[in-house]
């Protein structure tokens, strides 16, 4: 039992998440930001900059969803990626990887998604997007919800991300 508690505590530290669900420690910021910037670099797009105000907005919206853990987008003026995962053991890097792996469904030549959704990926690599802020919480159900907010937003119809 003690070993399990230590393992869970270590996973929380690795993910940059404190017991109250914050994901803004330096480890958490890097875990959100670094893989997104790697995806952007792969397609020749400038890196995103972490914006604390966007992270606060993301955290506030995630907390609004804490009771239902629903993947319902906010009605704000920002680009937004959301993630839901069963249980609490989701590392931030796994969450971002779920979005970035959607690259396989994006056909840049035709500017379409082939198969499942690829709009999380296209928001990440959207050329005009400059800033991001994210948060990860544990919902009342014990499941994981993550939100990233992007400014300026992307995913405009008939426009290419890069």
UniProtKB/TrEMBL annotation:
GO terms for cellular component: extracellular space. Coiled coil: none annotated. It holds the Pfam family CAP. This is SCP domain-containing protein. Residues 1-15 form the signal peptide. CDD domains: CAP_PR-1 (cd05381). SMART domains: SCP. It comes from the Eukaryota. Probably involved in the defense reaction of plants against pathogens. The keyword Signal applies. Residues 27-158 form the SCP domain. InterPro entries: CAP_dom, CAP_sf, CRISP-related, V5_allergen-like. Keywords: Pathogenesis-related protein, Plant defense, Signal. It comes from Amborella trichopoda.
């Amino acid at each position: 039992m003690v070993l399990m508690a230590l393992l869970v505590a270590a996973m929380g530290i690795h993910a940059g998440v404190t017991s109250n669900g914050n994901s803004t420690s330096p480890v958490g910021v890097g875990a959100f930001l670094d893989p997104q910037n790697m995806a952007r670099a792969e397609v020749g797009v400038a890196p995103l900059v972490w914006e604390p105000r966007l992270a606060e907005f993301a955290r506030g919206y995630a907390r609004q969803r804490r009771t239902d853990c629903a993947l319902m987008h906010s009605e704000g003026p920002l680009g937004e990626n959301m993630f839901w995962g069963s249980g609490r053991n989701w590392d931030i890097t796994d969450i971002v990887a779920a979005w970035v792996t959607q690259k396989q469904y994006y056909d840049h030549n035709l500017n379409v998604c082939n198969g499942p959704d690829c709009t999380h990926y296209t928001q990440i690599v959207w050329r005009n997007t400059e800033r991001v802020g994210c948060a990860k919480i544990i919902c009342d159900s014990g499941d994981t919800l993550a939100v990233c907010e992007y400014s300026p937003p992307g995913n405009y119809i008939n426009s290419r991300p890069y």
